[in-house]
Amino acid sequence: MAIDKVFEKLMDLGCDTRIGKIIHRELTQGNHLYKAHEHKRLRGAAEEAQHLKDIQKANGLFKATTVMPGRDFFYLKDKYGWDTIHSREFQRYMHKKIPETKIANV
């Protein structure tokens, strides 16, 4: 739900205007902060993916396919479910959308 819609619902419920504006500001700043740090999370995932590629080449003991930032993983797990995010189709989608997270072909 968009932040502005949340703000409108708070006002419809009779929330104090001052409190509503404070909540709106906090939600907006949190969203901006999330977007500002997104590149850091993706860069970390890309570094982890490269590290795992190197390990797989060296010993071949496991087959990891995709790396994603932890926050995103738990968000997607809660939204779509464990089985969905571990499916081949979802991992292929992730490889197309964010190629830096790819370790091996699925």
Give a brief rundown of this model.
Helices cover 73% and strands 0% of the residues. It has 106 residues and is mostly helical.
Defining key terms:
elongated; single chain; 106 residues; mainly alpha; 73% helix
Number of domains: 2
Shape summary: elongated
Alpha-beta classification: mainly alpha
| Terminal residue distance | 33 Å
How many beta-strand runs? 0
> What is the helix tally?
6
Low-confidence stretches: none
Strand content: under 5%
Explain what this protein looks like in three dimensions.
Helix content is 73%, strand content 0%. With 106 residues, the chain is mostly helical. The longest helix has 22 residues, at 38-59. The mean pLDDT is 77.
Q: What is the fold's blueprint, element by element?
A:
Layout lengths: L2 H10 L4 H20 L1 H22 L10 H11 L1 H4 L2 H10 L9
Helix pairs in contact: 1-2
